[in-house]
């Protein structure tokens, strides 16, 4: 309890300093930077090195291709040299190759951009006698207002001689995010269907299996378009939300009308409520996860 009381004043200090240092009209979002091909340079150990203000020496951690890089400078050292030394002067040792990019764990973005998190994907182009040449080849931006995630690619003429970029449109992480959203949407909208047709419209006597199939079908028929098709053609947030949510309500109304054989106005009402609730829950989840990150990051910063 005493430790907790000691933490609280520091949290206020963290918030005050954040308010003073951050640019005006911006908010801080978490950044997960990954260097995805470290295993290709098996002769080297790739490390992220960081010096906290309270420490005299640099702390270095091995960079794994599937994990977010800690806040710090990227360096490379030959494995045999690393094993032969009890300690290394990471700042002055001439055997250390350094990248000229500092990979951070957060970024400040304009408040008009409702961004909740950013994933950055880097590859090592080469490790020469002095430098680690890093290249950011794509960036995945997630939003907190219902806008689907946006994937940015950064083609570069020099990259073509090193890598083949036919990796597909959507990275693995984004497919997982879509499947999670799909399962959540099916669960929410199917539950609402059951509530409607077991209470308000119970006199219609719709079978449970038909309600379940309808809940799955409506989400499968609309969510892929909302996530992957409309963002290609509509790049502004408000028009995108209007078009995609209207599309979802109309298509799901028609499917409910056909599958359950009920009046269209009832189908439209059910579809509208399903989409409003699932959209609102999605916004709430994004808000809660963002708030949890900010609080936990403040705690961890104190003891870093």
Which helices and strands occur, and which strands form pairs?
Blueprint: H1 2-21, E1 26-35, E2 44-50, E3 59-62, E4 72-78, H2 79-83, E5 97-103, E6 106-110, E7 115-127, E8 131-143, E9 150-153, H3 172-200, H4 208-233, H5 237-260, H6 264-302
Description:
Keywords: Membrane, Signal, Transmembrane, Transmembrane helix. 47% of the residues lie in helices and 23% in strands. The protein contains six helices and nine strands, in the order H-E-E-E-E-H-E-E-E-E-E-H-H-H-H. Strands 1, 2, 3, 4, 5, 6, 7, 8 and 9 form a nine-stranded mixed beta sheet that branches.
Query: Uncertain runs with pLDDT below 50, 5 residues or more?
Result: 1-22, 157-170, 291-304
Q: Tell me, what's the shape?
A: elongated
- Beta percentage is 15-25%
Rg over CA atoms, rounded to whole Å, is 25 Å
SS class: alpha+beta
Number of strand elements: 9
How much is the average pLDDT? 78
Helix-strand pattern:
HEEEEHEEEEEHHHH
Distance between the termini: 21 Å
Task: Kindly state the percentage of residues in helix.
Answer: 40-55%
Number of helices: 6
- What about the largest sheet? 9 strands, mixed
Descriptive key words:
23% strand, alpha+beta, 9 strands, disordered N terminus, disordered C terminus, nine-stranded mixed beta sheet, 304 residues, elongated, transmembrane helix, signal, membrane, transmembrane
């Amino acid at each position: 309890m005493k430790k907790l009381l000691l933490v609280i004043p520091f949290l206020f200090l963290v918030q005050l300093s954040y308010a003073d240092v951050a640019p005006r009209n911006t908010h801080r979002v978490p950044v997960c930077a990954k260097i995805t091909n470290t295993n290709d340079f098996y002769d080297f150990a790739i490390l992220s090195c960081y010096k906290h203000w309270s420490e005299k020496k640099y702390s270095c951690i091995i960079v794994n291709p599937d994990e977010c890089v800690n806040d710090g400078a990227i360096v490379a050292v030959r494995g045999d040299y690393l094993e032969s030394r009890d300690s290394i002067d990471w700042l002055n040792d001439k055997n250390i190759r350094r990248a000229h990019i500092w990979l951070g764990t957060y970024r400040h973005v304009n408040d008009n951009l409702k961004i909740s998190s950013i994933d950055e994907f880097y590859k090592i182009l080469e490790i020469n006698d002095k430098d680690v040449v890093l290249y950011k080849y794509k960036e995945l931006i997630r939003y907190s207002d219902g806008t689907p995630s946006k994937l940015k690619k950064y083609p570069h003429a020099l990259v073509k001689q090193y890598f083949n970029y036919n990796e597909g449109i959507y990275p693995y992480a984004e497919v997982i995010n879509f499947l999670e959203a799909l399962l959540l949407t099916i669960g929410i909208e199917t539950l609402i269907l059951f509530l409607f047709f077991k209470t308000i419209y119970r006199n219609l006597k719709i079978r449970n299996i038909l309600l379940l199939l309808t809940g799955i079908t409506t989400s499968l028929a609309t969510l892929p378009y909302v996530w992957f098709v409309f963002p290609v053609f509509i790049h502004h947030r408000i028009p995108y939300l209007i078009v995609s949510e209207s599309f979802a309500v109309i298509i799901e109304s028609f499917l409910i009308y056909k599958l359950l054989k009920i009046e269209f106005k009832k189908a439209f009402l059910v579809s509208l409520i399903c989409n409003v609730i699932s959209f609102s829950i999605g916004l709430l989840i994004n808000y809660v996860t963002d708030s949890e990150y900010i609080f936990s990051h403040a705690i961890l910063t104190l003891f870093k």
